[in-house]
Specification:
There is one protein chain. Helix 2 packs across helix 3 (about 85-90), helix 4 crosses helix 6 and helix 6 packs parallel to helix 8. The protein is globular and about 55 Å long. By secondary structure, it is α+β, with helices and mostly antiparallel strands. Helices cover about 50% and strands about 20% of the residues. It contains 9 helices and 5 strands, in the order E-E-E-H-E-E-H-H-H-H-H-H-H-H. It has a 5-stranded antiparallel sheet with strand order 3-2-1-4-5. It folds into 3 domains: about 5-65, Nucleic acid-binding proteins (OB fold (Dihydrolipoamide Acetyltransferase, E2P)), CATH 2.40.50; about 65-140, DNA polymerase, domain 1, CATH 1.10.150.20; about 150-195, Orthogonal Bundle (Helicase, Ruva Protein, domain 3), CATH 1.10.8.
């Protein structure tokens, strides 16, 4: 997997960009939200990436923030939402705007995005509710960028989700224990001890 690409922005033609990394040009497809944040051609840039491998193609997708990439990865897990539609969603609405639509169950706002009908909007709300709610609460709604330390609470949240707990359930578990100034291991011990009683 290619986690990020850093180099010189060689070409920009939405939705595609080419980044020159040591003489190799990586073609990357990106949402408009990322394209708008890019510097001028010739400047240095770094994008978080996600590689999609299919029988007939390998496509590298790029995002200006970890939060955008995370939403993209969650969107493509929803039945009927492929990479192209996920990019369309990210191009048409901010991560926070999408989160608010899902939490408020605002189908009308989602159906205003190109390619999303009523049934797709309902499926997005149903499938994304726990993922969006938990991710927003775990990071406080702030994107954690590569290289930046995540909070112990966010690390504990991610560990519990990877153990199979649902994000909404994890949030409730974390709310029952003291997480201020405590390291990740102690938070996990407290949460699991509390869950066992």
């Amino acid at each position: 997997m290619i986690g990020f690409v850093r180099g010189r922005l060689a070409h920009k033609e939405p939705p595609w960009v080419v980044i020159d990394v040591g003489g190799v040009g990586y073609e990357i497809e990106a949402p408009m939200s990322t394209i708008f944040r890019l510097p001028d051609v010739g400047k240095d840039v770094q994008l978080c990436t996600h590689l999609v491998v299919r029988e007939d193609a390998q496509t590298l997708f790029g995002f200006s923030t970890e939060e955008e990439r995370s939403l993209f990865r969650n969107l493509i897990k929803v039945s009927g939402v492929g990479a192209k539609l996920a990019l369309t969603i990210l191009s048409g609405i901010s991560v926070d705007g999408f989160r608010q639509c899902v939490l408020a169950e605002d189908k009308a706002a989602l159906t205003r995005l190109p390619g999303i009908g009523r049934k797709t909007a309902e499926r997005l709300i149903l499938d994304m509710r726990d993922r969006i709610d938990g991710a927003a609460l775990a990071t406080g709604g702030v994107a954690v960028r590569p290289g930046e330390p995540a909070s112990a609470r966010a690390d504990a949240f991610n560990a519990l989700v990877s153990l199979g707990y649902k994000p909404g359930e994890v949030q409730k578990m974390l709310d029952k224990v003291d997480t201020d100034g405590v390291d990740t291991e102690d938070i996990l011990r407290s949460v699991l001890r509390s869950a066992a009683t």
